[in-house]
Specification:
The longest helix is centred in the first third of the chain and has 17 residues, at 13-29. The strands form 2 sheets. A 3-stranded parallel sheet has the order 1-3-5. The chain has a two-stranded parallel sheet with strand order 2-4. The chain contains 3 helices and 5 strands, in the order E-E-H-E-E-H-E-H. With 92 residues, the protein is α/β, with parallel strands linked by helices. The chain is globular. The chain has helices at 13-29, 45-61, 73-81, and strands spanning 2-6, 10-11, 32-36, 42-43, 66-69. The protein has one domain (2-81): Transcription Regulator spoIIAA, CATH 3.30.750. InterPro entries: MlaB-like_STAS, STAS_dom, STAS_dom_sf. This is Anti-anti-sigma regulatory factor. It comes from Rhizomicrobium palustre.
Length: 92
């Protein structure tokens, strides 16, 4: 089972809490998630931290995965500045 989550144009602190809750729900039900980051124009470090923690939590739980697809240039640039490209499995 795979579901998609679409990040809004402004993925900031207000998005971090609900995103974390969605990840926890998916992990507990064994549901894989795909996070579409194509619309992101601005992303905050708290939101990126939740994504990194989510990647780690899904990996530890096994059975389900978290994939980030189509990161916008703004998303990729912020992740790069913060040194999170590898943690988010986005390469360079």
């Amino acid at each position: 089972m795979d579901e998609q989550v679409t990040l809004p144009p402004v993925a900031d602190l207000t998005e971090a809490g609900p995103l974390k809750d969605r990840f926890l729900q998916a992990i507990s039900s064994g549901t894989s998630l795909t996070v579409d980051a194509s619309a992101v124009q601005r992303v905050s470090s708290p939101c990126l931290q939740v994504l990194v923690a989510g990647k780690q939590s899904f990996a530890k739980a096994g059975g389900a995965s978290l994939t980030i697809t189509d990161p916008s240039e703004a998303f990729r640039e912020t992740a790069s500045v913060l040194g999170l490209l590898d943690a988010l499995e986005l390469g360079k």
